[in-house]
Each structure stands twice: as C-alpha cells, then as structure tokens.
Predict the 3D structure of the following.
Amino acid sequence: MKSATLKLVAAILGICLAACAHNNSGFKKASPQVQAATNMQLAIEYMKLGQLANARDFIERALSEDPSNPDVQMTAGLVYERLLDPQRAERAYAAGYRLGKGDPNIQNTYAGFLCRTGKAVAGEKLFAEVARSPLYQTPEVALVNAGVCVRGTGDIVDAERYFNRALAIRPNMPEALLQLGNIAFDRGDAAQAREVVLRYLAVNPSTPELLWLGFRAERKLGDATAAAGYARRVQTEFPNSEQAQMMRSGINR
C-alpha cells in the first residue's frame, strides 16, 4: 500500500504541473480537456488502490469537463462496472464506443464489456474486427479475448480455434496456452494439459493458475511426486494466491 500511495502522490504532483502553465502574468488554469485527462488518471489510480468512491468522484469530474473524450467515457464505464452500477456502466461504455468507434483499443474494451454482460455474439464479432484492424498492434490479444468470450458460452471448438490463431501469431503467448491447457483438462485430457503446462513453463514465468493446472493434471495422471512439486511451488512462490488458499483448505477441484 505504501508503494501504491507513493505512486498516487507522484500522480498528483504531475497533475499540478500539467494543470498549470506559467506565463508572464503568472499561472493560468488548464483547459477542460487537460483537467479531464488529469482527473481520469486520478480515477484510474484510485481504482488500483481499491478506493472506488474516490475513483467515482474523479471520473465524474472528468465527465463534466470533457464528456466527448472516449477514454474518459470508457474509464467511467469501468468505474461504474466496478461499483456494480450496470445502467451507468452501459451508458458510459456505449458513449465511449460511439465517440471512439475508429479506435481498436476502444472497440476491444467495449467488446469485453459486451461479453461480460451476456452479449457474447456481439462481443465476439467486435473482437474479431479488432483483430483484423491494421491499427491494432496486438491482434493476438483480441483473438484470446474472443476465445474467452465464446468459451464462456460453452463453445469450446471456436474457443480453441481463437487460442490457436493467437499462438500462430505469438507462439509462447501465456494467456492462450493457459486457456488451451484448461480446456484440455476440462474435457478429461490430462496428458495434453500436462504438455501445455510444460510448454508454458519452458518459455514463460510461472503463475499460480498455471501451477494449479499442473498440480491437477499430474494428480489425475497418478504422478503424486510431480503433483506435490507443483503444490510446493504454489505455496512457496504464491503463498497469498487463491490457489494456495484452496490447497490449504483441501479444495482440489
């Protein structure tokens, strides 16, 4: 928390510099657009700290200062979504998408919201559009997002297709590998899940989710030694993770 607080203080100091411009007659107030961008960044910092009431206050200031800024609207959508205010979240996301329709980053964010709110068909379509955009520098990210979206509807075949397309662009992409490993395990193919875990660990740093998958795959395959090794790594490397807590509680789903 101390580190996060220091970062927030630094952001506030940056705001003071950005909000004021010196001229011969002294200081003058920044434009509404600059103030909105500043308050949006403060809202983001407060969200990172989990202080949602403060985040709401600052993003609403930004909205009053520059409602035509699509990034401000999308940030407002995120804040309201975190505050469990779906109506305001939807209005803000929709406004941001309308204002920044040509921006694939805005489209990607809006597609995620659509998928999270039960509009998977529209979300998948928009993710696919983002992945095709020559302006979007990481199409593999949009493809993984599309895969996650359709997997949530139970469409495993299309989900695998998206994840494999992402890996064709970036062969060691951790998110795509983890998704494929979980799909393999869920359909009962622990051997393939093990292969994915080993491939992942050969090229990427470990995560509690990946080690948890390795633990379950090895346990299902009957290799108690390998399973115990993954369990130790979860407890040692990620003692505060949800996976470590589940292990301590004896939950081995």
Notes: The first helix runs from residue 2 to 19. The radius of gyration is 22 Å.
